[in-house]
């Protein structure tokens, strides 16, 4: 009984304080007996794994699929000409259209969800994480189903596939899933447990990418007819499994206070979010939080800018086909899996290195990776850079861990939403900027865009060095989980 009581007292610290009005309780921490019967009740990683796997499976082939559709339906070549491997002439013909369609899709699925997430974070702090986690996963499932239905329409133009972005725009998309996943982990963990749990989220992302990259070529061989269509519907089905899991297995982590306003479309949510993120904190707390947030956003800016064009650039540089790229992506994911999770466990948990100095070293690895890619003359350069850059998967977990130490628990959703907002709007600028650079250079220097990445990746390094310096100047101060203003 004493052990159960201690466990309950420890976990109850994670709960928001009860109001005096009527409330409806939802289990935040499951008791030992409930865990035995329902061991997945706080395992949000299962839903995230299904989400990432479904997304990677379809997104890896979208560029290939749009090239095929453009070749066949815009330029009216036959299937044999438009099927891999396609000639350099056809490649140069279809790539500008494909790059522009990809850019518009990226912008559409970034801008509106980035505004959406500003409301989701504060709302979920009071009304629960599950409602919009379910809605976002369902919207993504509908989006891939639309891709499947549109792919069977004969003579369809590639621009019409942008209609499949509508469900993502209306339901929040991946950025809502990201922010609620991180909020959920913060809800059910202590500060000591949080770093490994956040690292495990990064590990789940890498594993899903690995499985997706390895599975895609095999699925293509197994599916004789309607290959692209089948993959899109498989992704839609996996996301529906995630919806079912969240709905039936995952426990809510928030005490829903019925006497407080629960409307979603309220400007107060946005005002509250920005007030929390920009409020004055002692010991340089505000500038530390903002520098970490902006540094993360710039890293995402670079990743988003490169991701939509990396397949096109590798095809142009080295003549890689889908199988070549899938093998490279698989190796990169293996490096990321080991680099991210093992790196955090070894450096932070075992050696107990300080979080932010480690983050500086990790961010600098991304600079080296971009520089190697910019100078690559052979395919193996990209494999080498992937090994070095694998440590970047530690950065998100380390940064969010440090922020969760600076802010009180009841502000986690708002700050995580602010981070996701910054990360979500990055493609709005990154996609056109990288697309313009690629369009101007792809015939003579297809990897020129990586020079831009090299310069941009230096900015988070400088920001994190400033954070480390500020922390060193206040070395007698140790962050607690409470509001730093209470220290005064």
From TrEMBL:
InterPro entries: MFS, MFS_trans_sf. Coiled coil: none annotated. The chain crosses the membrane at residues 132-154, 160-186, 198-220, 226-246, 287-305, 325-348, 380-403, 415-437, 449-473. It comes from the Eukaryota. This is Major facilitator superfamily (MFS) profile domain-containing protein. Keywords: Membrane, Transmembrane, Transmembrane helix. It is found in: Membrane. One of its GO terms (cellular component) is membrane. It comes from Clastoptera arizonana. One of its GO terms (molecular function) is transmembrane transporter activity. The keyword Membrane applies. It is a multi-pass membrane protein.
